[in-house]
Design a protein that fits this description.
Largest sheet: none
Radius of gyration: 23 Å
Distance between the termini: 46 Å
Structural class: mainly alpha
């Protein structure tokens, strides 16, 4: 996925030749493993977001069941 995203981003920037030197300079100035580190940070952020969202699910289901007037004890 990261490779596809990088390719797409690269294609967009390649269409703008006047920006190419600035982009090359920026990439050349970064450490070799900068993308790996950035991906780790992004991964942790997504995990935190997901954990927060997952905590809301039981209350969202309960609210939806209340909205529908669903009786958990009904057979």
């Amino acid at each position: 996925m990261l490779e596809a995203m990088g390719f797409d981003l690269g294609a967009i920037h390649a269409a703008s030749e006047e920006q190419t030197p600035a982009i090359r300079n920026d990439l050349d100035a970064r450490p070799v493993d900068w993308l790996h580190g950035a991906a780790k940070v992004a991964t942790e952020s997504v995990k935190e977001d997901y954990a927060g969202w997952a905590k809301l699910i039981p209350s969202m289901i309960a609210a939806f069941r209340d909205f529908l007037n669903v009786d958990d004890n009904a057979k």
